[in-house]
Amino acid sequence: MALERMATPQSSPRQSSSLSSSPMSTRTQSLQVDSVQRWMDDLRHMTEVECMCVLQAKPIGVEEDSQHGELVLTSGVSAGDHVARNNLQTLLRRALVVSTELGKMFQRLEKGRWQRVHSTAVRANCHVRSLVHEYGAARSIPPEMQKYEKSLLEKCMELTNITERCLHTDDEFFLKSMREAIHEILTDVSDSFSNMIDMALANEIQVLIKQIESSDSTSTIGTSINNLLSLTQDGPQLCSIIAKEGAVVALFKICRQDRFRELYAHALRTVASICSVEEGINQLDKVDGILCLADILTDESSVEAARAEAAAVVAQITSPHHTSTQHLASFLESMHDIVTALIKLCENASCGEVFLLASAALANITFFDSMACEILLQLNAVHILLQACRDQQRVDTPYSKDQVVTILANLSVLEPCASEVMQEQGVERLLLLLGEKPSSPSPSEGAACERVQQKAAVTLARLSRDPDVAQTAIQLKAVPRLIQLCRSPTERNNSDSVLVACLAALRRLAAGCPSSISVADHQQLIKPRLVDSFLLCSNMEESFV
């Protein structure tokens, strides 16, 4: 999956813009093949099936030319550390083919297309048998997995036989009863196959983890870590399996050894991906991973890349998307050191990506503990963040601006924040952020711009409790801009959240200086209940009255 760098503090740092999660430059480690090559790969699978039908599902021997068939899971696929990765990728491909066939069977069964149902059952049966035999030839199969294999093969054969019986009758009552029976068997086959694949994947992942734990070679460990990272891009289910097999523990062992310092960044990037699931965070908590992250972040001898990836892990584990907050108890113990290191990383970031990761972590932290906001004010964070906004090398995308304005919005609940924003000409910056527009038709960029506008309006409303801030905003023509955002759906990209925030900010300014609002605008945007003004503006056509 393509990872964006943290579009919002509610996203993971591998889900945003070119990170968002989001929110995390695309860092995808998946197979780099063009469409023609992929078609040729898939064609091998399909033609292999026909051979297997003729041979009645007997395994094809591994001969000298076996490297031409990607279906064979053997150590001859490639040399050294690439074996486990190739085995996993082949296993995933075969699993996808079988899953696709089973999905087709469900659809064709519902439509009563019995000829198609049977032919699909035959293909699925052959694929499963081929995969089981080949995998068994390449690996030692655990006893529990052997039980699943035996049961799965029996159910596949039963499925083939029962669908064949349906070809030789037109009895609707019989076919109806068979449809129910086939659906039940097909469901069992799908569940059994899923469990078997999970076990096979776990078996292969164990190979990579053992290489990380037992090798003294930086090259070997680095290759295994990269292979694990590649697997994390295949979705949350695989991340859960990787976490359960102990990958987080193994990776933090690497991060605690000085001789592997050059691997810290790669190891932490993989940890961040694994921690997109709860199991990964639980494993991190068990090995005191937060203390290790704090050590790396506060170690001035650590390279920037390692500190940036440590920030990515912090952003991941503090994301409000996670339902479990148990791990945050240990985080609070190191919070002052982590926040201090993160704001320093923002100040000295050499590029936009590093700034994005550090600011995303800070944005998430300010959501769950007000003490973090107080620490940031003491560390002169308002000055550092607003200065960064003037530096295009650090703040170069709406995603980065989203993080900055999120932090400012959370800081603005504290009274001392207003004077610091005034000193740094922060009101002018907020008005510029109210005009944020996407530079491309990308939906994620458009959504990021909406969040920037919304949070800029929220921050302005909160800060305008201070009369000096309110007066400065009015002098800088904040009111006409807020009215434009309220009345013009295209200016706010038809966002209701931006509309509500702008109405709230407008009412706050009008309360301090009623003369800044025209009579017509007051009648429509200030005097009615907020919900009535919202309904009026959300339903109106383009208007600049």
TrEMBL record:
Residues 1-33 are annotated as: Disordered. It comes from Oryzias latipes (Japanese rice fish). It comes from the Eukaryota. GO terms for biological process: apical protein localization; asymmetric cell division; regulation of asymmetric cell division. GO terms for cellular component: apical cortex. This is INSC spindle orientation adaptor protein. The lineage of its organism: Eukaryota, Metazoa, Chordata, Craniata, Vertebrata. PANTHER family: INSCUTEABLE, PROTEIN INSCUTEABLE HOMOLOG. Residues 94-545 form the Protein inscuteable homologue C-terminal domain. GO terms for molecular function: cytoskeletal anchor activity.
